[in-house]
Write a structure and sequence with these properties.
Layout lengths: L2 H29 L4 E6 L4 E6 L4 H7 L18 E6 L14 H5 L2 E3 L9 E4 L8 E12 L4 E7 L13 E5 L11 E5 L9 E7 L5 H9 L5 E8 L10 E7 L3 H13 L5 E8 L8 H10 L3 E7 L11 E2 L2 H8 L6 E7 L1 H13 L7 E5 L1
Parallel strand pairs: 1-5, 12-13, 12-16, 13-14, 14-15, 16-17
Antiparallel strand pairs: 1-2, 3-4, 3-5, 6-7, 6-11, 7-10, 8-9, 8-11
Helix pairs in contact: 7-8
The chain binds flavin-adenine dinucleotide and FE2/S2 (inorganic) cluster.
Length: 368
């Protein structure tokens, strides 16, 4: 084949593939045009006319109904469950790991995975209608360690938030750099529940993480920040004499809020807070927790360094937080445990707690 014939063939192939992609995109547009469909919520109590084609989670969010979600719709948190009585189609493979046999009977579905294509009948707990959206102003951003920042946000003038210490908010990014879409992630509230016109979050940088890179490199004081919440069932039960609190990294956030909750309510519980870190540079809020120890003898702060540097001159507990738990917590009797941190650390701690007599009813945690 001569050079001109090759050029002609390549040209024809390019034209055919361009034509095919136009046909595919037109077909997609037609097929995905589900028109306006009706969402019937709680047996006719609320009826919404919505545009079909998006996930149920984002369709509800655009109607200001915020379903809990920690993974931003990636089917990895399992929090976005909604009972769909009609209109969802069969259970998807991505949903299967999160829906128990009992939940299947109740038609529970992951709202981030199912698309709104036709009229649907939903059952949504009334409590979720209290979740609100806030457009806050970032008033402070502070380095707590080399990879954790504290964000302090002011709620819009005249607005307040009621949350239970330990709960989390969803934080929405804006498109930046190569990230063309908004994403949202869960962050535990670290501030006091009594402070209703501000919210504080502690955000650890995850290398290449979309949201944390946005927070650590793009966000600046004065920016508007969109949040929704509060969400979650990690909050104080307090049906005991002593609270064993355990955290690593940014898992300190909800524990800080819980400690202040107990103190400000004047509750009688003893508290021991085991905080696991690698080296001295991973510790933060140490002065504050030591001051609380002095002011409130019911509270003990036990930082544990797994791998202190010689230059750290560390005199405290050395080893993983599990070592301190093993040594210092005798029994689960009269105690509840509140844990927050990485799945690996939490699983190891929960194993030890159960050996000491804690049960599923006395252990509460948020893994992240
Ligand atoms: C209930 C709840 C509360 C949370 N509270 C906090 C909080 O107070 N402070 C806080 O910093 N984070 C918290 N998180 C984690 C947070 O929601 C995000 O998952 C995290 O910040 C990463 O988001 P990203 O968009 O930067 O990373 P992504 O873009 O989602 O992830 C980028 C890559 O990093 C991996 N990755 C994601 N998270 C982690 C991680 N934690 N460690 C290592 N690798 C990871 C992903 O698998 C992926 O490969 C919480 C999570 C939950 C479920
Ligand atoms: S939002 Fe996390 S599984 Fe649906």
């Amino acid at each position: 084949m001569d050079f001109q014939a090759i050029l002609k063939t390549v040209g024809i192939l390019s034209l055919v593939s361009a034509a095919l992609s136009v046909i595919i995109s037109i077909a997609e547009g037609v097929l995905n045009n589900y028109g306006i469909v009706e969402l019937d919520i709680n047996n006719g109590k609320k009826k919404l006319q919505v545009k079909g084609g998006s996930s149920l989670l984002s369709t509800l969010a655009s109607e200001k109904i915020f379903i809990p979600s920690a993974c931003g719709g990636k089917a990895t948190c399992g929090l976005c469950k909604v009972s769909v009585q009609e209109g969802a189609g069969p259970l998807l493979m991505t949903e299967e790991p999160y829906i128990t046999p009992e939940e299947r009977k109740q038609n529970m579905r992951l709202s981030c995975q199912i698309k709104v294509k036709t009229n649907m009948k939903l059952l949504i707990p009334e409590a979720l209608f209290n979740i609100r959206e806030f457009i806050c102003e970032l008033v402070e951003i502070e380095d707590m360690t080399y990879d954790i920042k504290r964000l302090r946000m002011k709620l819009p003038e005249g607005q307040t938030i009621d949350f239970k210490a330990g709960q989390f908010m969803q934080f929405y990014t804006k498109p930046y750099g190569k990230v063309k879409e908004e994403v949202f992630r869960a962050y535990s509230i670290s501030s006091k529940a009594t402070e209703k016109d501000h919210l504080e979050l502690l955000i650890r940088l995850v290398p290449n993480g979309i949201c944390t890179t946005y927070v650590h490199t793009v966000l600046k004081v004065g920016d508007k920040v969109r949040l929704s919440g509060p969400y979650g069932d990690f909050y104080l039960r307090g049906d005991c004499e002593e609270l064993i609190m355990i955290a690593g990294g940014s898992g300190l956030a909800p524990i800080r809020s819980l400690v202040y909750d107990v103190i400000e309510k004047g509750l009688p519980h003893k508290m021991r807070f085991f905080f696991g870190a690698n080296t001295l540079r991973d510790l933060y809020y140490v002065d504050e927790f030591e001051q609380i120890e002095k002011d409130y003898p019911q509270f003990k702060f036990i930082p544990c360094l797994a791998r202190p540097e010689p230059s750290d001159n560390w005199q405290g507990v050395t080893g993983f937080v599990t070592v301190a738990l093993q040594d210092q917590v005798d029994t689960g009797e009269g105690k509840e445990a509140y844990l927050c941190g990485s799945p690996g650390m939490l699983d190891a701690c929960i194993k030890i707690l159960k050996e000491k007599g804690f049960t599923d009813e006395t252990i509460f945690y948020d893994k992240f």
